[in-house]
Amino acid sequence: MAPPQAAARRSSAQTREHVLRVAHELFYWEGIHAVGVDRVAAAADIAPTTLYRVFGSKDGLIAAYVEHAQDAYQHWFSEATRADGRDPRERILGLFDELAWQVRPENCRGCPFLMALAELPDAGVAGHRHAVDLKAWVRARLTELAEELARTRPVADPSALGDSLMLIMEGVYASVQALGSEGPARQARPLAEALLP
Fold first, then answer.
1. Which run of H or E residues covers position 188?
2. What is the CB neighbour count within 10 angstroms for residue 152?
3. What is the DSSP letter of 186?
4. What does the longest C-alpha to C-alpha distance in the chain come to?
């Protein structure tokens, strides 16, 4: 009988990605300050010293978690609005269709970036900056979509339309944690549709 094989060692990049997946689950569902480094290390099945070697500190881990969430969100948003033959109006409404799925209770506890901003109020902290950067990125993308729409339909002020769409999205994230996806959040697409020419 052959001896059991030792678990394959992960590269540093694989360890980092693995820890970030574990940290995301814990930080997002339980809270950044509620979860300590030892808990993340135990859940990731690594030594705390390994976690510190990869991220430097809990602040480094938090910053990497928010940045990782930022990358995933940008990918989600870009896929939902990609130029795939749909006109800009359809792409904007497609975003709100995807948002309705994203905020279902099994998927969503609220916006991870709003939660990070609440837990990390210091604007000098990297995690805070990443969350602010994501919100600015979303605003810019929505404005770009509104500008694309303005090239095909009458839009008086694309910037104002982009901001209005942003407010609807933020309203969904702000309300869904307390009132669920069947609360005010279900009005997001009809509100967006009413704003679009």
1. helix 188-195
2. 11
3. G
4. 76
Q: Containing domain of residue 28, as a range?
A: 10-56
Residue count (the chain): 197
Q: Are residues 14 and 31 in the same domain?
A: yes
Predicted TM-score (pTM) of this structure: 0.89
Which one of 19, 41, 56 terminates a domain? 56
Alpha carbons 159 and 164: distance in angstroms, whole number: 9
Q: Which two tokens stand for residue 40?
A: 């993340």
pLDDT tens-digit profile of 8-24?
A: 577 888 999 999 999 99
Tokens of 8: 């394959």
Burial zone of 145 (CB within 10 Å; 0-12 exposed, 13-18 middle, 19+ buried) = buried
**Torsional sign, CA 179, 181, 182, 187:** positive
> How far, in Å, are 1, 5, 26, 150 from residue 93 at the CA level?
60, 51, 32, 15
